[in-house]
Amino acid sequence: HLSASSSTLAYDREFLRTVPGLLMVTEIVLGLLVWTLIAGTEYFLYPAFGWVMFVAVFYWVLTIFFLIIYMTMTYTRIPQVPWTMVGLCFNGSAFVLYLIAAIVDASSVTKDLDSHNYNSWAASSFFAFVVTSCYAGNTYFSFISWRSRTLQ
């Protein structure tokens, strides 16, 4: 006698209506813009843009991963993981590394370097700073969540 167990994944529709949820979606959309604007150029000739690409693609993929975890409420199925601390570390590291990448991106954009790619690099720099501010906001909300859990 075989019994089939069914496990259904929960779906949290309300997460996208919260400020952290909206910030994550903004991070994904604008992070995609950052790395596609650079990827469409000859960035590989300039090591600084390689660093920006690494940070942008790395955190873009991880942000999608965390959005899926929060949307499907997978974190409730793995209570052994300190999710508030994981979120704080993720958002904090994303903020710091994106800030460095945005500064590197902005300081590397010059018309003298390659005028053909100037507009794409300038736009990627702008969006990198916007994404940095989104990660800063999510770091703040992660800190508030972590702080409220540690005080209990």
From TrEMBL:
Task: Give any GO molecular function from the UniProt entry.
Answer: structural constituent of myelin sheath
Give the GO terms filed under biological process for this record: myelination
Task: Write the record's keywords in alphabetical order, separated by commas.
Answer: Membrane, Transmembrane, Transmembrane helix
| Main location per the UniProt record | membrane
Gene Ontology CC: membrane
Cell compartment(s), UniProt: Membrane
Membrane-spanning ranges: 21-38, 44-69, 81-101, 121-143
Task: Report membrane topology.
Answer: Multi-pass membrane protein
Domain of life from the UniProt record: Eukaryota
Q: Does the keyword RNA-binding apply?
A: no
InterPro entries tied to this protein: MAL, Marvel, MARVEL-CKLF_proteins
Where does the record place the MARVEL domain?
A: 15-147
One Pfam family per UniProt = MARVEL
UniProt entry tagged with the keyword Transmembrane helix: yes
Q: What is this protein called?
A: CKLF8 protein
Which gene name belongs to this protein? Cmtm8
